[in-house]
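Internal QA ticket QA-208
Title: Verify multi-chain structure generation after dependency bump
Assignee: T.L.

Test input:
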Amino acid sequence: MERSTLDLWVGIFVVAGIAALVVLAFKVGNLSTYNVSESYSLQANFSNIGGLKAQASIKSAGVLVGRVTSISLDTKQYEAKVLMSIDSRYQFPKDTIGKILTSGLLGEQYIGLDPGGDTVMLKSGDEIKQTQSAVVLEDMIGKFLYNKAETGK
Amino acid sequence: MSTEALVEISNVNFAYDSRAILKGINMSFPKGKLIAIMGLSGCGKTTLLRHIGGVLKPTKGYVKVDGQIIHDLDQEGLYKMRRKMGMLFQFGALFTDMTVFDNVAFQMREHTDLPEEIIHDLVMMKLHAVGLYGTQDLFPAELSGGMARRVALARTIALDPMLIMYDEPFAGLDPISLTVVGELIRRLNDALGATSIVVTHDVQESLKIVDYVYFISNGAIIAEGSADEIRNSDEAFVRQFVHGEMDGPIPFHYPGANFSKDLGVRV
Amino acid sequence: MALVSSLRGIGSRVVNAVWRIGYASRFFLMTLYYSGLSFRRFRLTVREIFFSGVMSLIIIIVAGMFVGMVLGLQGYETLKRYGSESALGSLVALSLVRELGPVLAALLFASRAGSAMTAEIGLMKATEQISAMEMMAVNPIARVVAPRFWAGVISMPLLAAMFSAMGVFGGYVVGVVLIGVDEGSFWSQMQGAVDFRHDVMNGVIKSLVFGVAVTVISLFEGYDAPPTAEGVSGATTRTVVESSLAILMLDFMLTAFMFGE
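Actual output:
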C-alpha cells in the first residue's frame, strides 16, 4: 500500500473514532448540559433516606441543580447525613426545605429543594435545617392499617 | 598477511536440558579467510554459529570475537558487536512485508543517519554486486529461491561487516544458483576483506571456495584442514562424508532394532 | 490409579498456566519498556493502526448496526408491556455505551485483528525473520511488538465508540423510523439517562483496558508460538479463546467496580 494512502486511511479512522466519541458524549450523553462549573457544598440530615444513593440528582422545580456526593450515618443523632454538591449558579435561601422524593411511581429517589422566603442565602458548608425524609413503604402500610383499624372500630 | 584470529572458540562446551551438544570445541578463524564448518544435521554446527553471534552462552569455555568475549557483553555492547557482523539465515529470512529495496536498506535506516539519496545508491550497489539490480521494487514472495537467497546476501553485507556467517547457504538451490551463491560468497569475502564462516553440508560447492574446513560429529571436532587435505583425508567419517558413501562410520540402518527378529525369521 | 494421574495432570496444567501468565507479564513489561521507538518513529505505529484498526472498521460498523437494531426490536417488545416505549432510547444507549460497545467491539477485534497479529508474528518467528532482526542488532520487541501494542490500545476505544454510535443509530432506525416510537422522547430520555462521566467515560476506560489485554495476549501468543505450522495455528486459536475469556472476566470486574455500590 502506498504510504500516503495508508496515512490517509488511518487519519480517516482516527477522525471517525473521535467523532463517534463526540457524538456519544453530546448527542447520546448529557455533556452539553453538563457543567464542569463551580460548585459549593451543602449538607442535610434525614431520619430516613430510603433508597437515596450517592450521585443521585438534586432538583429544584424539576431542574437539576446538583448531585449527592456522599451519605453517612451521623452517630451522634443516628440520622443520615447527606453531603451535596450544588451548582454555584443557584443560590438557595436559608429556610429551604430538602425532601427525598421518588421520580415516577417506582423510580429512583432524588432530593428536591423547596426554597423558602428568607433573604439570607445558604453558603458553602451550611446545613439545610428543614428536611423531609423518604416515604418508606412499610411505614406507610403500617400507618394505613392503623388508620383503617381506628376508623373500623 | 595477518593470521590474527577474528573469532576464537576455546574449549567451548554447551549442554541443553542436560543433553551435551558441544563438547570441548577449539576453533580459530583467521581474519580474511573463508572457513567452512561441516557435519551431519544436528551435529551442533548451527549451535556454534549461535554462540559466535552471542545468542547462546557456553556452559564452559569462551568465544572471543574481535578480542572481546561476546557472551559477557551487555545488551548495548552486544548490539554494537552485531552491527559489525552479518548473518545469512537458511532460506534467507527476508522480511516478507517489505520490498527488496527496503530489506537491503533496513540496516542502513536503523543504524545510520544517512540521507535517503545515499541509501538509495548504496542499496543499488549492493544489489548490483549480487547481480539483482532491477528487482528493488519486488516483494520477497515474488522472487525465486535463488534470487531470494541473493537478496538476503545483499542485505547481509549492507553495512560491510567484518564477519559474515552463513547458515546452510546452499540449501535447496538449483545447480546454477549453487555456483552463483558459492562464487558470490568467495568474491564478497575477498572484496570486503572480511572473514566468512559457512555452515553447510554441501561438500562439492564449499570445497571449491573455502580456505579451511572443520568437521564436526556429535558435538566434537573430528577433522580439520585445508580443502585439499580434506579431499585426500584418510579419516573414515570424512571419507564417507566427502564421497557421499552410503555406509561407513555413519551406518545406513537405524541402530538398535533387529529386523529379522521382528519378522520371526531365524538367522 | 487413574484418579491420581488425572489430578496430577490438572495440577501440572495449573502450574503451567501460572508460569505462562508470569512469562506473559514479563513480556508485557518489556513491551512497555521498549515503547520509545513506537512514538519516536510514529510511522511504524500508524502502519499498525491501519492493519488492526482500519481493517476492522467494516465488521465493527456492520456488527454495531445490527446489535443496535436487535436492541431496538427486543427492547421495544419488552418495554411495550409496561407502557414505557419512550424509554427505548435510554435502553439502547445505556446497553451499548456501558457494556455492549466495549465488550463486543473487543471480542470482534480479538477475532479479527488479534488473531492476525498472532499469526503474523508467529510466522515471522518461524521463518527466522525475528532472529535475523536480532542479529542485525535491531530489538524485535521495540521494532515489531511495541508498535502493534500501541496501535491496538489506540484503536480499541475508537472502535468501541464507533460500535456504540452505529448501534444507537441502528436502534433509532428500528425504533423510531420502522416501529414509530416518538423521536423526541427517544433522544431526550436518552440524553437524560446517559451521563458523560459515569457512562461514556467508563465505557472508554473499559475499552482501553480490553485493548491492552487483547493486544498483549495476541502479541504474546504469536511471539511464544512454536515455529511450526501447527504451532502457529494453535497460537491463533489460543489468542481468540484467551482474549475472549479475559474480556469477559475484566468486564465483570470493571462493571462491579464502576457501576456497583
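Spot checks passed. The first strand of chain B starts at residue 5 and ends at 16.
Status: verified.
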